[in-house]
Amino acid sequence: MNDEKQKIIQEFLKCPTNRSLLDEFKNTNSEEIKLRIDLEFKKFYQNFRILSYLIKVLHFESKHFDKKMRSYRDRNQLTLESNLDMFPIYHEKAFADSIGLSGDIVDHITSENLFKCLRKLTDRQKEILSLVFVKEMTDKEIAQRLGITQQAVSKTRRNVIKYIRKELTYAR
């Protein structure tokens, strides 16, 4: 007997009723009990085959469905780069407000020492840090928004980061 047949028989015999029928047959060698075991095994095997078939069908169909969904997603990708004006929610301020993000960097800090350090900064410095780290804007975009030069934004950012590093190393 091969392994698969042995496994099926072992599964069949895990049922206490089937096991007791087999034990009874071993003791009596009754033809009637043998027929009952055969009938029970045929039912079990039929259920086993149906279940095995359903598992294979589900497996195949799930793979097929996944393949279709990947194909659909690849063909119908959502791209907003060309038509951002159609979706005002995707402008930086509206997007942050729509999902409940605060634009202030202080609201995103969990470290107590860093929080204390940021509270000492001027409003302009906090605004530049917020635009850099929360809104992920470039120096050029920040300069245009604030009406200052790109070099001023870069210098302010560098000086603030240097100040924060210095404060945090002394705070330890």
Give me a quick take on this structure.
The chain is mainly alpha-helical.
Write the layout of secondary structure elements.
Elements: H1 3-14, H2 16-28, H3 31-75, H4 92-98, H5 112-119, H6 123-134, H7 139-146, H8 150-171
Helix pairs in contact: 2-3, 5-8, 6-8, 7-8
Question: Sheet with the most strands?
Answer: none
Number of domains: 2
Mean pLDDT: 80
What would you give as the CATH superfamily of the largest domain? Answer: Winged helix-like DNA-binding domain superfamily/Winged helix DNA-binding domain
Radius of gyration: 36 Å
Task: Explain the overall architecture.
The protein folds into two domains: 3-75; 87-171, Winged helix-like DNA-binding domain superfamily/Winged helix DNA-binding domain (Arc Repressor Mutant, subunit A). With 172 residues, the protein is mostly helical. The model is unreliable at 87-92 (pLDDT under 50). The chain has eight helices and no strands. Helix 2 runs antiparallel to helix 3 (31-75) and helix 7 (139-146) packs across helix 8 (150-171).
List keywords for this structure.
8 helices, single chain, Arc Repressor Mutant, subunit A, mainly alpha, 172 residues
